[in-house]
Model the fold of this input.
Amino acid sequence: YQQQYQQHHQQQQSPPNISRAVGAAFASYLAMAAMSSAAKFTSSLGTDDGDRSPNGSVGKFDLYLLAESWAPRFCCTQQSKCEAERMHELTSLSTHGLWPGYYAAISNGRTFPAYCVKSKTSEKSREDHEWEKHGTCSGLDRIAYLREEQRASQTHRTLPATKVLANSSGDSIAIEQVLEGYGGEKRVALMSDSFCRLQEITTCWEKNPDGTVGKQIDCPDHVLGSSRNSALLSGCSKIWLDKKGSCQFITKEMLRAFKQMTDKQTQEDQ
Done:
């Protein structure tokens, strides 16, 4: 993580150019593959691997993680879920979930508890899934947990960066500007795809003594060094923000840049 962190700063100190930006997109393929091993526990946050076995104890965790998806990109890749959750009209962020987590991996290697109370009911909605997998570990009842999720999400939307992101839909934004808007690179993890298109934002929040959500805090290294922070770790100097109903414009632009870079390299080789 420290090595990737230093490389990121070295890249930011050099003037940007098309070759570096496009190279970052190529490099992200390799970085994502490398991170999949180092982040084998944290990368499972927010995914469904089919394992419903209880792992962790109710109320025994250190902090909360709040994950917010960039709705237009989510709807480009998860169309059926997008329709089911009625996200297709959203233009910016949508709540993924509020997750109890640990500051560091515990003895079994896990960085978060899950399914702390086994349920006999089947999951039907996003709220059902988040409650079953994460909420049952919070120590709160279902209503209180979902209320805290909503409150944390509303607080998150008041941060300077979220307003800048919403105003940049359909365009790109410098990653340093986003980090600054969140209070620094320890305060947020930015997940992107291999074209530096924003997928999800993860912020970290204090756990109050009564189990409710407190103030925003620095994220643990296991979050910042995982696939949840792929945009930063893969060297994206900018992140691209899909616009509602337009899934292809960034891909075409990036492909055009790839072609220009390839043609230039071919000419130089000749």
Summary: The longest strand covers residues 198-207. The radius of gyration is 19 Å. The longest helix spans residues 18-38.
